[in-house]
């Protein structure tokens, strides 16, 4: 018989987690204003809120921490990391930052001004927040198939070239400072972007003399999907695919807390010496000196090792297989999820799960809270709350699909934990008609409200 698949690692250390009672969870979520971000970590049994900085590091990464150079300027850890970035992505200019949103802050401080437009594929929350905070506009050019959760399109993260061309023809060149391509595309379900699409986007952008920047938090997972799904890449290595991907970019932002396999850190890399010279000023102003930029030397060391490990095919196969284990179990149970399954998370289609709950009552948040109450599992809403309000009209924005995202930390949970998640969602699905109402907003911040807002059940 064929041998079954097993992870390419063994467990060396464990961390106890507390299994709470439903009565405790009912009290805790009410005290948190029905916002799972406001829960304490020890009030959560299985934490699928995010895959950002929540994974387990390897023994080699822990060893690298001990040799970190904490010099303020000219740290050897900086040069070690810079060498890895240049080798993997091909960019000569590099600035470390404390995480991905810091890279966005530095880059947009260089490139964006009020009234600009930034086309891309379903910009995620911090990206859109930084754009709109500067009184600019993010324009979504994702292909329409991304909003059809039953479609089997293999690259739902792709940019629609006609939509992008329309933006580039509608606005003057000086009003479009860059195009952002998110790989993989988080907002539509961890969906990959094909190499052909990256190539075509870059060709179109070059015709209009607009630079292309990749939001690269999950670059390796995107490369794995290219290897698995795109003709001509099945025999290329992950590192070869990554290097080719970035020939179609002028720069990149990176939250290293995802595919960097570390708990903190990020960077900004680019080809332009002019961009770099301007960015250094903002990096020093916001983050720290250019050779540490908000990161300790030990964390730069761990990140350099993480960039090696994340591009290993065996690691990626184990990672993606676990995500698909959860997604396939939910699909078998009849629970609607974004298809085909993506990379870092499983996205439950809350609108199809609870079709009788009006979108105005934040259906994905309703399902998020129900999952926590059922089993102490913390997912996150990727729906109207995350979409925020229109910065001009201040009306709620309602995305085409309301998702409950179940993001899997890397090398952290076993499949037994995921079986708990499946059982909990099956229980909720069986009693879904009993869920009558959602939430109304009690308090919200003017930008990126979903992190700190407070809600209350309608009718309470």
Automatic annotation (TrEMBL):
Taxonomy of the source species: Bacteria, Pseudomonadati, Bacteroidota, Bacteroidia, Marinilabiliales
GO MF terms held by the record: carbon-carbon lyase activity
Any GO BP: aromatic amino acid metabolic process
Cofactor(s) recorded in Swiss-Prot or TrEMBL: pyridoxal 5'-phosphate
Protein's recorded name: Tryptophanase
Pfam families: Beta_elim_lyase
InterPro entries in the cross-refs: ArAA_b-elim_lyase/Thr_aldolase, Beta-eliminating_lyase, PyrdxlP-dep_Trfase, PyrdxlP-dep_Trfase_major, PyrdxlP-dep_Trfase_small
Family per record: Belongs to the beta-eliminating lyase family.
Natural source organism: Gaoshiqia sediminis
Gene3D superfamilies listed in its UniProt record: Aspartate Aminotransferase, domain 1, Type I PLP-dependent aspartate aminotransferase-like (Major domain)
Keyword Acyltransferase: no
Keywords: Lyase, Pyridoxal phosphate
Residue numbers of N6-(pyridoxal phosphate)lysine PTMs: 258
Residue ranges annotated for the Aromatic amino acid beta-eliminating lyase/threonine aldolase domain, each copy included: 47-422
Superkingdom: Bacteria
